[in-house]
Structures are given as C-alpha cells and as structure tokens.
Amino acid sequence: MNHNKIKLFIISASISNLLLTSSWYYLGIYSSNLRYYFYEKPSVESVLSISLFLGFGVLIFLLLKYFDNKKFLKIETFFKFTFFILVFDVLRRLSGLLSLSILIQYKIFFVLIFLLIVIFFFKFYKILNKIISIFFLVLSPFILINAGNLIYMNFIINWDNNKKLITSKNYTNNNNKIIYLIFDELDQKFIDTGNYKSFNNLINQADYYTNTLAASDNTITNMISIITGADLKTELPIDKKFYKFSNNEISFTQNDKKYNLSEYTNLFNTFDKKKYKVGVVGSFHRYCNLFYKNLNMCFEMNDETFTIKNLGIKKYLIYSLTNIIPANSKINFLANHSIMNYHLSDSPNLRIKNIIKLKKIVKELINNNDFIFIHLPLPHKPWVYKGGKITSENINQLNNSEENYSNNMILTDIFLEDIISELKEKKIYESSTIILSSDHSWRARKDYVSPKINTNIYDDNIVLIVKNQNQNQGKKILKQTFIHDIFKIIEQVSNN
Q: Residue 62 is part of which domain span?
C-alpha cells in the first residue's frame, strides 16, 4: 500500500470513527465516572460497535479510493465534504452547542451560508479537499483513544457487580422494626396542598418536620448525606474523581478529607453492628455492591443504569445508524426517544416491571429483616401512572408537566398505602418505626429554586415524617432541620 492509499485509509477510518461518536459515548468511553459507576460490562455491544466501525471504514475507503483521481477530484471532495458535514452534525448534537432548528429560523442567513459554501466548493474545491483531509487526519488519533478505552472497559476494569451478601449472621429479631422510606423527588409542596390519603394519614399520627433542607439538588449528594450523616451542604463532590468505578465505590469529601462511602460510618454498617438484620431495596445507587458486607437481603431496581445492555443488537444497530442522519429528522427522533429512551435511562417499561415487582419485594424485606431501607424512584419521572392504572401509553413520559407529576404522586401514595397495609396485616404497624423522606423536591416545579452550594441559603424543603413506635398523635416540628440530621434521627430511634 503506497503512501497515498495509507493516508486515504487513515482518513476513511477517522471518518468512520467520528460518525459513530454517539455510539462510543453511550458505550461509556466518553462518559464521566458517574456513568462508569452505573455501567455493566458492555461486551456484546462493544464487539458490535467495533464491527460497525470497521465496516463503515472499509466502505468509505473503497468509495474514496474509487474517486481518488485527478479526474474525479470534485466528486472526491464532494464526498469528503458530505462526511465532514455529517461528522460536524453528530458532534454538534452531542455537545448541544448549536441548534440547527434555531439557525434555520433565520432563513436568509441560512440561505446565504449555503450559497457561500456552494460557491466556495466549486471555486476552491482543491483547497477544501486538503483542509478536510487535514481535519480528519488531525482527529485520527481518536481511533486509538476509542480502541484503548474499549479494551480498558472490557479487560482492565474490575466489573465486580455480583458481590454476595453475607447472610449467615445469627442475629435475633428486634422487636421494633425500623422502616425507612425514601421517595425520589417527592415534593413537600404537593404533600401540603394535595389530597394524598396515605401521606395525610401518616402525618396525622407522626412527627412532621416542616422545615427540613436538602444539601444539594441532586440524588447523589443528598443520599450520601442521609446514609452517612455527613454535612455536605458546604462540600462539593470530587467531580470526576467522585466515583471510583474499579471497585464500585463512592468517595466524598468531608473537611477536605476523602472518604469511601462503604467504609465510612453509615446506616448499614451501624445497624449491622447493632445486630439488626438489614434489608434494602434501592434505586440509583448500587446498594447491593456497596454495602454487601452489612446486608441480609438486597434488591436493586435500577432502571437508570446508563447502559445499553437492555438493548438488543437490532436496536443498537438502528441507534448507531440513525444517529448519523442529520438532526430534526423523524428517524433521528425515533432513535433517541423511542429506542434509547431518555439517554438510555429511565425506561418506562423497565420502571413499570420494577413497580409491579415491588410489592412482593417489600413483603419479603418486612418479613425477614429488622431495619428495612427502601429507596424508590417515585414520583420521579418517567410518568407511568394515568387514569388509575400503571401504563406506558402516556406519550409524554418525560414531559415535566404538573399533571404528569401529580399522577405519579397518586401512584406513590398507593405504594405507601400498600406498605402500611402490609405492616398492619402482620400486626406490627404500631410497634414499628416509620421514617419517610424525599431526597429532593420536584426540580421541574416552576417556583423551584436549587439549593445554593457553599452558602447558607437553601430553598429546597424536603419531606421528612417520623412515626415513632406506638405513636398515634401527630405533631409538626417547626425547627430547621438538615437532610444529614436524618441519620441521627434514625440512629436515636434504634437506641430507644
């Protein structure tokens, strides 16, 4: 292969590589450590992506090689320019830096640019050919970067996602079961103003903390604050180093020191030391792996895995191909919203399957454990409750409307009723302690103001309800409470 053919081959491979940037991204190789934390080994998809890459590269090489002749220089330049536009559009959409729909609104401006491009192409096509060739050659090292990352993900990362719980502990049952319920994105304003029977009944016989403030507007920070009791309202996560994906660990800072979540004093190792059998059903965090040493039972209900493992080969292929098509096409919309379903997370169908399984799982936890920790992705979107039933028929499953949120609130209220009914059926409701909270409010609410990190101003009031053992008279707790105080409240309950 002569020098020119080698150069053409590198250009072709670079084009192919860049066209599949969206696919590389969703495989995780351009993702933050947050994504690695949720990933499972994408072996099949990785092989397929490599195959696609090689197939595109060969086809592009054969096409450009055929026209690699002075007689066909205009045609060769045309194809290179076309690939450049497609690559530019893929990168544009992925970065979100420029909207074509906005640009097209200024029709005169758009037409002028188009005409300038056409004139430039026919008048300076030789120069254009060289510029585009240099562009793809300069970006060709990303071929090695992507290949290296795929190798790293498949053969170097320790994907230890199936740690076995230590269930052989000979613990005696505690008389006072402690059930902690976290409903993700449960909004206090809706609780106070809405007619939610189960929530209202619980508030009427429990301590209702009306001024409890979040540490952040995200689940990550707030859940760590709850689980550890660490005051994180003035601390920031370690950004890219926040998640250590080699061993499914989470790190956070406290007073400028770095701690591992599973080793830090937390709810699970605290109750384990107290000889409570600990049962967990969790979403978002990988509870079963993080705290496996301390758990008797654990179920994960993650439909927010940030992975394409639930896609079949066919859907992944469709996604990869349609993402090359310029934006605003119906096909591209289908790929991103129907096939991939909200950036590969929050799948409504998977959410529904998890919800249907929930009642059985909660029953198992209550029957076999003393401290029950339940973190559910409700009323958080996708919106899967409408017209009195759980359904995926709602076409606006990701549309943050008040109606959609209210519908999911109804579903959340129903689940609370199911849990309380189970406790009453077992005749342990009165003797049990129930703590209920949110991690943050509904962030799409019109008057929602995100908590100000590194200041003393917090605008996000979360729900906090505590029904103590044998309590039947409700009272409002007006004093200011912070989300990290929940840890102390739960610990105090266990000491009573």
A: 3-156
